[in-house]
UniProtKB/TrEMBL annotation:
<keyword id="KW-1133">Transmembrane helix</keyword>
<dbReference type="GO" id="GO:0008467">
    <property type="term" value="F:[heparan sulfate]-glucosamine 3-sulfotransferase activity"/>
</dbReference>
<protein>
    <recommendedName>
        <fullName>Sulfotransferase</fullName>
        <ecNumber>2.8.2.-</ecNumber>
    </recommendedName>
</protein>
<feature type="binding site">
    <location>
        <begin position="6"/>
        <end position="10"/>
    </location>
    <ligand>
        <name>3'-phosphoadenylyl sulfate</name>
    </ligand>
</feature>
<feature type="binding site">
    <location>
        <position position="95"/>
    </location>
    <ligand>
        <name>3'-phosphoadenylyl sulfate</name>
    </ligand>
</feature>
<dbReference type="InterPro" id="IPR037359">
    <property type="entry name" value="NST/OST"/>
</dbReference>
<keyword id="KW-0325">Glycoprotein</keyword>
<feature type="domain" description="Sulfotransferase">
    <location>
        <begin position="1"/>
        <end position="232"/>
    </location>
</feature>
<dbReference type="InterPro" id="IPR000863">
    <property type="entry name" value="Sulfotransferase_dom"/>
</dbReference>
<dbReference type="GO" id="GO:0000139">
    <property type="term" value="C:Golgi membrane"/>
</dbReference>
<keyword id="KW-1015">Disulfide bond</keyword>
<keyword id="KW-0808">Transferase</keyword>
<dbReference type="InterPro" id="IPR027417">
    <property type="entry name" value="P-loop_NTPase"/>
</dbReference>
<keyword id="KW-0735">Signal-anchor</keyword>
<dbReference type="Pfam" id="PF00685">
    <property type="entry name" value="Sulfotransfer_1"/>
</dbReference>
<feature type="active site" description="For sulfotransferase activity">
    <location>
        <position position="6"/>
    </location>
</feature>
<keyword id="KW-0812">Transmembrane</keyword>
Amino acid sequence: VVGVKKGGTRAVLEFIRVHPEVRALGTEPHFFDRNYHRGLEWYRSLMPRTLDSQITVEKTPSYFVTKEAPRRIFNMSRDTKLIVVVRDPVTRAISDYTQTLSKKPDIPTFEGLTFRNRSLGLVDTSWNAIRIGMYAVHLQSWLQYFPLSQIHFVSGEKLITDPAGEMGKVQDFLGIKRVITDKHFYFNKTKGFPCLKKSESSGLPRCLGKSKGRTHVQIDPEVIEQLRDFYRPYNIKFYETVGQDFRWE
């Protein structure tokens, strides 16, 4: 699972690891971005033990925006299947900012970080929270190494409204039986998203941690409008490239 941050990658990982044919690494190894110098043996040593019939999954959402990651993954195995969880880039940016704010309460306002010049509507694309959502740009680096048939895009929105449907497609993509179905999920009203009735390791319900489902910071609607305009051409290019309309409007 190579991306994207605040898209729903943790949910996808927790949901897919319920499948008996999947083993997943719980933490983010950051091998293909930060820890590449440690070598492939180090990376392998982190992985859960699997049978020949099982698929090993890891997730590090920052891979999607790391220039070297596609080449490095390709050099390890050109057959790797890649999952990218995407959501409306405007919502994603606000979620990203909300997360940072919870750790560093003294950062500038969202508006202040978003624009280089607000009156001219110049968006600051060097700010990570904005840059990550330019999916069409990042995707180009991946397509130099991997065909679209090896990349599966999960809708972060549908993951909330129809988790079984989205996970059904993920299982199809991985070539495994549709074991994870409606009966695995219930909707948690407090958090505002679906949770697993049973986790892989115990018979207890499993919801994502406290850091998930935070209430987003309130943003001036005009700022949101300007960001929508900014992302529109990137979104359209992305839809055209992947052949899928995510309806982010």
